[in-house]
Amino acid sequence: MEEGWYNKFVIKRFQKVLHDHFSYSDTPFKLKKRAVISQNQAFYKLKTVFDFNDMCIVADNLSEKYDKYLYGNPIPKGIEQLGESEYILESSTLEDEINWFFLTLRKYENRFTKFIDLKHEFDNCLLLGDYKNALHFLDQIESKICISLWGIENRLLIKEMMDGLEENKLFLNEINDSNKSGRIISLADFLSKRAEKELSGNRYKNDISNALSRIEGNLKKETIEYYLFKTNYHQLEKYDAKCFINSIEFQHSLIDRYLAFIRILQNQLINIDKVKDLDMIKSRLYYASKKLEKDGLIENMRLFVDPTVEFSNIRLDSTAIEILDDYSSGDYYQVVLKLKKYLPLNPKNFELYVIYAKSLLNLKTGKL
After folding, report:
1. Alpha carbon distance 327, 132 (integer Å)
2. For residue 274, which of 51, 48, 95 has the smallest C-alpha distance?
């Protein structure tokens, strides 16, 4: 009874916000235009003034006609739909931005979980150079979940690796013909160049730096950070425009929002300087872990901020532990023998590549 009363109170409170931000005009065109702007402002207030529990109450009880403000366009079905979404101005706090992403997470939880499972298979194939099967899993992701910038990035890469520069550029032309968003076209162009096998890392870094140096306007710094975040993440050690980046990602797919959320938190953790921020991240990671129980990236971040965390569903990799024991005892022959079988099945276990290389050196074979 008390919960029902409180829910009604919260809903009525937001309905008043909607009403207060709706301004009238003397022509139908101006009325429509002002209504859209005013509703954006109302949902900006929902994002920045209401706490997360109240945001959830509002989201669960509003008419579907407001979904475009709450969730944007999280499951685009074609390249032409990428970037087609309402823009809600960024908050001044990262917690607000994370909570805003969590509205999408709680509504599309099953799609996020499916993406994480399929991405795991895709990554394994890509690392092993099995591009045909990698393409199969990418097709599965796009048909069962959605089209995304992440998908475009990896399709450009696979086309380059399988068929060369010409196929890379043909797909880029297809993107340019299908999508009219200047941001999507620019990102696709950068990602196409990054996929080129003949382009060195330094050359790519110089090319993108020169292109971004021509950006002008009040949001120049934030815009440059956004493009680097999407196209050459490791060029910057610290991203200050995390809220701006997250607000732009709201206009993209749920896949892109999830990957941005992971990277934003990773960057925040390695640059954290306030206990208050650490407590916020702990609580947000805890919520995310409840929604995405099989997400190893979230589990790793939780362990990073709190080594005492215990996971009920954690599975120990007995083979990896056995290999590390062999290495510690100096049995390099067994390490190499076991890793030759283990790594093709677990190519994302990067720390074992170092063990493999060192064991080969200790055996003085030098053969990979």
Report:
1. 35
2. 95
